[in-house]
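Example record

The entry below shows one chain as it appears in the dataset: sequence first, then structure tokens.
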Amino acid sequence: MTDEATILAVDDEEHILDLISYNLERSGYRVLKALSGEEALRVLDRKEVDLVILDLMLPGIDGIEVLKRIRSNAKLEEIAVLMLTAKNDEISRVVGLELGADDYLGKPFGIHELEARVKAILRRSKRNREDAEGNEEDIIRVGDLVIDRGTYTVTKSGLELSLSRKEFELLYLLASNRGRVLTRETLLERVWGYDYVGETRTVDVHVRNLRRKIEDNDNDPAYVLTVRGVGYKCV
């Protein structure tokens, strides 16, 4: 059983919603369902949700727009989002990750993999909340960057930067291991909570987006460097 986390599943195919709901409820989660982006936003406005499983191909308001609205709403921005995408839809996948999705899963998917991803995301979200509560004064300085774990904020030369939750976690982890090379697999496990080798493309997309926000020139980074064939390090 779980801590009864509430999950909102959003898909325009009822049989997929039924499949997700049946299996996750068996694992102890509470599952809400929505057949459209509009319905999903109405549910989010009324209910407290821990994780959204979001199909990107929706009628009306599509999944990308739903994700944008979640991340731009102060009351919803901390909700974890797992995207469902077509196996060959790499563009939507990358866009979704850059907009702040926590992870993605290609369709068709295996129910055991879905459950593993859900468990990892929720475990990581809970750990982050507990860490933040216990480390209010935990501040790391790297050059003119100030990374504050207590408030989940990053400033550069005194100006606050707009980072997604996962971008912050990546930067914090790299900065707290300054000078050490962390592999993509290590970053995937520590930031996304996976205990198996997952899709390291997720890490690369988030690092690229992070550099656009913290570097003066993201093509010639000064903070987060790539170690070819291995991973990344903060200098």
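Notes for this example: The CA atoms of residues 3 and 29 lie 8 Å apart. The first strand starts at residue 6 and ends at 10.
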